[in-house]
Amino acid sequence: MNKHVVANMKTIVRSCIKPKCVMDNNGLTYKKAGVNIDASKELVKRIAKLYPGIGGFAGNFQIGDDYLVSSTDGVGSKLKVAIEMGKHDTIGIDLVAMNVNDIVTSGARPLFFLDYYATGKLDVDIAEKVIKGIHHGCQEAGCLLIGGETAEMPGILREDDYDIAGFVVGMVRKDRHINGSKIKKGDVVLGIPSSGLHSNGFSLARKVLQVSEVPLTEFTPWAPYNTFGDELLRPTRIYVKDVLKLTERINVNGISHITGGGMIENIPRMFPEDKNLGVYIDTESWEVPKIFNWLQEKGDIDIHEMRRVFNMGIGMVIIVSQHDVDEAQKVIPDIRVLGEVYYKKSVAFL
Q1: What is the pLDDT of residue 10?
Q2: Which string of DSSP letters, residue by residue, matches 304-332?
Q3: Count of domains in the chain?
Q4: Own/partner pairs for 150-158, CB < 8 Å, 24+ apart?
Q5: 124/148 same-domain check
Q6: Any idea which of 21-25, 242-246, 292-296 has the lowest mean pLDDT?
Q7: Residue span of the structural domain in which 300 resides
Q8: Does the structure show a pLDDT above 70 at 8?
Q9: What values do phi and psi take at 188, rounded to 5?
Q10: What is the pLDDT, as a whole number, of residue 28?
């Protein structure tokens, strides 16, 4: 065990999280809030029979010595919060972030972005705010917004509802493509903090507020001038520039975007299937934002469920060789050393 990881791990009580782990929990869960992660995993498993190789964070298409890397995503029920708060200027940033953060896990630089905006009745002012947010997100990610689609769908969506989806294409040289094949035992697990909930787990977060009878307009106890609506609508952090700067300075062995499924579901996605590898995570290596602690307490949510649904304050996990840790910390000042890679297919929290 190297100096960057907690010493004497054998003496520490640890919880190895596996897919079939059973919880005894009477509190709120994502499933009780209406989202079934297991059903989503089953769908991916079935689709993989038709299209082998899917399940990563982005799709890769080789052209000569380069890969075109693509992703498509939305922002989930975070939209409900934006609509209820009447705040539409940052949800577009979330849309871009969820897509570009996925493709940068391959080391790809985003090239262009397309958006889809659907509504029951077009409100030009709201749509303009949303698309301005998308444009802002593209600027932050260093890509171009080159087109999109606006659809009015009365009878399918209510007049005051809308939905958005995005699609991004990036590129990376074949010899710089990050696919997890270089990850090895003893590598160090690093984490870049999130800006909050990002765009995942909102069905559960909204359920907690509902059962606690806490309105979105109520001020949070830890920031008296910040409402719960403001907290939930914090824009998703865009990691593109930080990650690309890092890949230019050191050899990055693996990257995981911590989205729906949390660390438990997303970290294993960066490991090749033929490698019997997992990670130790030291839970004291970063400070969990207060919103997550509040949600867990008010919703009586099991810690396993919290880690399986939310990012818990870490939005991107990066695996590097031990000798590259110091350089990584110079490139990204707020990066954290979380743990280490070891021989076992699990994510163990210490």
Answers
A1: 31
A2: HHHHHHS-TTEEEEEEE-GGGHHHHHHHS
A3: 2
A4: 150/117, 150/118, 150/119, 150/122, 151/116, 151/117, 151/118, 151/119, 152/118, 152/119, 152/120, 152/121, 152/122, 153/118, 153/119, 153/120, 154/120, 154/121, 155/120, 156/120, 157/118, 157/119, 157/120, 158/120
A5: yes
A6: 21-25
A7: 1-55+178-350
A8: no
A9: -100, 135
A10: 73
- Do 205 and 334 lie in one domain? The reply is yes
pLDDT at 168: 98
- Please report the pLDDT score of residue 55 as a whole number: 61
Claim to verify: residue 64 and residue 35 sit in the same structural domain: no
pLDDT digits (tens, 9 = 90+) for 112-147: 999 999 999 999 999 999 999 999 999 999 999 999
Q: What is the CATH number of the domain that holds 102?
A: 3.30.1330.10
- 61 exposure class (CB count in 10 Å sphere: 0-12, 13-18, 19+): exposed
Between the alpha carbon of residue 176 and those of residues 66, 77, 168, 180, 334, the distances in Å are 9, 35, 19, 12, 24
Domain of 18, CATH number, reads 3.90.650.10
15 has a pLDDT exceeding 70: no
Q: Is residue 245 domain-shared with residue 347, that is, in the same domain?
A: yes
